[in-house]
Amino acid sequence: MSECEQQLPEWPMARSCPYAPPDAYAGLRKEPPVRVRIRGGEAWLVTRHADVRQVLNDNRFSADDQQPGFPIRIQLPPEPGVMSFNRMDDPEHGRLRRMAMTEFTARRTRALRPEVELLVGQLLDELEQGPNPVDLVENFAVRLPSLVIARMLGVPEEDEATFTEQSRVILSQDATPEETYGAFVEMTRFLDRLAVQRTAEPQDDLISRLATRYVATGELSHQELVAMARFFLVAGHETSAHQISLSILSLLRDPVQLAELRADPALFKPAVEELLRYWSISQDNQVRAAVADVELGGARIHKGEGVIVAIPGANHDESVYPDPGRLDIHRNAAGHLAFGFGAHLCPGASLARMELEVCLSLLFARFPGLRLAVPVDDVRFRENTLVYGLEELPVTW
Fold first, then answer.
1. Does 293 or 41 have the greater pLDDT score?
2. What per-residue confidence (pLDDT) applies to 74?
3. pTM score, two decimals?
4. d(CA 118, CA 129)
5. Nearest C-alpha neighbor of 392 from the set 135, 141, 161, 18
């Protein structure tokens, strides 16, 4: 390794405060993008809001994980299509995404809301009747998205805990490659069996509808259906679960803004956008590879070089969001990049927003005396993972 390579900053970068992105981002936003050392090589790190938008909306930056230089953050099998259309470019990306988006329209999300409200109500009933104090991560924040995505896919409820753990292992940076691969294989085997069952005997769920509409006509292969379901299971559960728990923590730490929300529930909708911006829990799983030479924010990025998009850096850009480290439910957080941007915008964004709004509004209405059961400094965060979150959130009421 050359002296120059040794001097490159290490990625990921450390946080000095669990409630803020890495300190280094503020300084990096004042300069052109920089190269960093990552596991297995080097990549460019992009932290400014405008630069991040460009990378995510410019087809010279490829989302195809088979491209030379693509930064590898999850140790999964190297074959194409492992993460479905999330790791593809057009035309394949567009072909698969169009099929998937029939299940994630605004209309379907609105239709799901009563069922989500019912599920949240059932979980709150269990909390009320269960032990006090209780860990809201394990008993609420993780369970609700698991139940929702399981219902959507047609996964039996008794398998909820299994795929929750498999998702955690797949996205953890502490897991060994063998552990990650093992969890991936087990989840794939389960979804493969489920897809075979639903293709033969369709029911009222996402896998059945995709099988009936697209597998039966030859537009979608069985393997593509399994990969798509796997992507929904991992992405749809893990991100929502930790956004919920972090959002609850934020509001428990800020009784003044929480009182405003309780007094005017219409504020929950804009509060959700600010909470998404503030936490930006997708720490570093938005990555690309340059397929042409590109000038970006004063840096020259060459074909074949990898790019890491720091969503927390972009969403805390002072030029777009003044005093970005302050949570403000009255802020206009429009334009935040918590769900990405451009062609690869998260397909489940509207569902995630709805889940978060329902969770927060019903939880704080049911438990007006909800408070932390431990000193705030004792709350433990999950750090070495692609999705930021909490290990646990002990509360009482």
1. 293
2. 67
3. 0.92
4. 17
5. 135
Enumerate the β-bridge partners of residue 309.
Answer: 46, 286
Residue matched to tokens 């030029």:
319
Tens-place pLDDT, residues 294-309: 999 999 999 999 999 9
- Strand 299-301 to strand 294-296: parallel, antiparallel, or no bridges (unpaired)? antiparallel
Indicate whether 2 pLDDT > 60: no
CA distance readout (Å), 228 to 32, 101, 340: 36, 11, 18
Mean pLDDT across the stretch 177-203?
89
Q: Which residues are catalytic?
A: 235, 238, 240, 346, 355
Residues 136, 361, 396, 15: what is their CA dihedral angle, to the nearest 10 degrees? 50
Mean pLDDT of 263-291: 93
Residue 158 has pLDDT above 90, yes or no: no
Q: Are strands 286-290 and 61-62 parallel, antiparallel or unpaired?
A: antiparallel
**Contact 307/287 with Cβ under 8 angstroms?**
yes
What residues contact 4, with CB distance under 8 A and at least 6 apart? none
Query: Cα–Cα–Cα angle for 350, 148, 393, nearest 5°?
Result: 95
* Per-residue pLDDT, 162: 83
Instruction: Of 145, 117, 363, give the one whose Cα is nearest residue 243.
Output: 145
Taking residues 95-103, report their average pLDDT.
93
Reference 103, options 241, 211, 224; nearest CA is 211
